Amino acid sequence: MKKVIVADQAACVKCLGCELACANAFYKEPVSELSCIKITEKEDGSPKTLVCVQCGKCAKACEAGAITQNAKGVYMISKKLCVNCGKCVEVCPFGVLVKSEDRDVPSKCIACGICVEACPQDVLAIKES
Predict the structure, then answer these.
(1) Residue 65, exposed/middle/buried by CB under 10 A (0-12, 13-18, 19+)?
(2) Angle at 124 between CA 59 and CA 111, to 5 degrees
(3) pLDDT tens per residue across span 34-91
(4) Predicted local confidence at residue 129, as pLDDT
(5) Which among 90, 9, 75, 20 has a CA at the least distance from the CA of 44?
(6) CA 66 to CA 58: how far, in whole Å?
(7) Rg (CA), the chain
(8) Among 37, 46, 40, 27, which residue's Cα sits nearest to residue 101?
């Protein structure tokens, strides 16, 4: 089983509620740059929601072994093992790992659902596959 956040791209109105809720929950600052979910734009100007698909590329890049997959298929970062090298951030194909100068450990989506709850358009959902 793998637990992931999925998005109905066509329903997004780019309100950024999901980004702000995520950043506020984990950094206590509603700042989009600190969010583990990103709303960008497609070439036609419509919103594009970028979420962690739990692909594991971050774990493969982590030389410290600080990123492991839990029983629900979610990759988690160990604060004890992470050396804050940033390699996981560099290899993320979706640009949704966050490295802040104020923290010793990058942040990534843990499929907690805070963004799902914050979305007024029901764009986001947690799925298990």
Answers:
(1) exposed
(2) 30
(3) 999 999 999 999 999 999 999 999 999 999 999 999 999 999 999 999 999 999 999 9
(4) 79
(5) 9
(6) 10
(7) 14
(8) 27
Task: Decide: pTM greater than 0.85.
Answer: yes
- What is the token pair recorded at 123? 């764009």
Q: What residues pair up with 125 in beta bridges, in sequence order? A: 6
User: Number of C-alpha atoms within 13 angstroms, CB side, residue 125?
Assistant: 8
Query: Residue 120 — left, alpha, or beta (φ > 0 → left; ψ -120 to 50 → alpha)?
Result: alpha
Question: What does the block give as tokens for 55?
Answer: 């692909």
| Apex 37 CA angle, 103 and 45, nearest 5 | 135
Q: How does 15-46 read in b/e, with b if 16+ C-beta sit within 10 Å?
A: ebbbbbbbbbbbbeebeeebbbbbbeeeeeee
Please, which residues have CB within 8 angstroms of residue 15's CB and are 6 or more apart in sequence? 120, 121
